[in-house]
Amino acid sequence: MGYIEGLRKAVGNRPLILVASAVMVMDEQDKVLLQHRVDTQDWGIPGGFMELGETVEEAARRELLEETGLTAGQLNFFEIFSGEEFFYTYPNGDQVYNVIVSFLTKDVRGQLEKDHEGLELRYFSLDQLPGKIITTSKRMLDALKERFPPAVR
Question: Is there a smaller number of Cβ atoms within 10 Å at the N or the C end of the chain?
């Protein structure tokens, strides 16, 4: 049993503060990789919660590999996202106040391969994102678009 599963067994669906890592993978055309999620049916940035003893970078690399089949080379720190706007209630009722450490990279190896958490993996232009994006990822993508407006890309 993982760390979060153990916590959930003890506290049920009550709100938890959890630390996560996310990796915004950009391709040569500056399109961002998104995962169509099984749990919420939304699109989202690959990433997930830290396990005990992991660094945020180790969690980012592990989650990216598990969810996409890609191995990250250079990870560039992007931003830490937290606060009320990163509160989320999962379809099963679990409540989370996310603290998300995000990274950017174009340096990946491997073949795209979805895992059991994803329905599909696809690169999207920042100007043509899918309509149904999980709220936490939407806020992160908005920050990415602000930091790198079309004139800069």
Answer: N
